[in-house]
Design goal:
Layout: E1 2-8, E2 14-17, E3 23-29, E4 32-38, H1 42-50, E5 55-61, E6 69-74, E7 80-83, E8 88-99
Antiparallel strand pairs: 1-2, 1-5, 3-4, 4-8, 5-6, 6-8, 7-8
């Protein structure tokens, strides 16, 4: 299983979660990653775009028979766009950090 979260980096506020029926894809664009999230409402899209330079994106790989692997992406000054006609949010992210939380809390 896998899930994606978009959070405000400063307050930790949850802005989007794929567990709410959103679909997503990750595509490499050179040193950056483009994340496309579909099914985003206009209110959600506006909230995310309004905080564009202060976003963190998390992707959790949660295999049934192994430890969780967490991927942390930082948006920084990269583009964040919302298309209201398709309910699609596109985030360009950098600085992926991959880690296993179980290696930090023993």
């Amino acid at each position: 299983m896998e899930r994606v979260l978009v959070k405000h980096a400063v307050t930790g506020r949850m802005l989007l979660s794929s567990t709410e029926g959103l679909t997503y894809s990750f595509d490499q664009a050179g040193a950056l990653t483009v994340i496309t999230i579909e099914g985003v409402t206009a209110d959600q899209g506006a909230a995310v775009v309004g905080l564009a330079s202060e976003l963190n994106v998390f992707r959790f790989e949660e295999p049934p028979d192994g430890p969780v692997v967490k991927h942390w992406y930082y948006v920084g000054d990269n583009p964040v766009r919302y298309d209201e006609t398709t309910n699609t949010l596109t985030l360009t992210v950098q600085s992926e950090i991959e880690y296993r939380p179980d290696q930090y809390w023993e």
